[in-house]
Amino acid sequence: MNLSDQLRHYRLTTAEILYRMPDHPGVLQSFVWQDLDLAPRFPVLHRFLDFWRREIEGPLHSVRVAQARLITPAEIRNAEHLAHLH
Questions:
Q1: Minimal CA–CA distance to 32: which of 22, 20, 46, 18?
Q2: Which of 13, 14, 41, 76 is most buried by its number of CB atoms within 10 A?
Q3: Which residues are CB-neighbours of 16 under 8 A, at least 6 positions away?
Q4: Cβ neighbours of residue 20 under 8 Å, at least 6 residues apart?
Q5: Radius of gyration over alpha carbons of the chain, in Å?
Q6: Are 12 and 1 in contact (CB under 8 A)?
Q7: How does DSSP classify residue 77?
């Protein structure tokens, strides 16, 4: 991931995936997935979920998604104290 990707609005995306255990369908298991993705369509996450449905036996129960910006404006704070060193 380079700076130009970050400037194109890629965000660090985390998904908590709950799925049913193949041998015990009444039991839910949690899987955490994290990658860079574009909101609101989330193409990278959708590719992963398509792979999951095709290749993994545990049926999906639910997916919860959170995002964080990678590049944020600089924080500006006023100094409360000023000290001089000689």
A1: 18
A2: 13
A3: 30, 31, 32, 63, 64
A4: 26, 27, 28, 29, 58, 59, 61
A5: 20
A6: no
A7: -
Side chain identity at 76, as an amino acid letter? I
Place of tokens 């194109």: 8
Residue 80 neighbours by CB under 8 Å, 6+ apart: none
HSE-CB of 79 using CA atoms within 13 angstroms: 3
- Measured between alpha carbons, how far is 63 from 17 in angstroms, rounded to an integer? 5
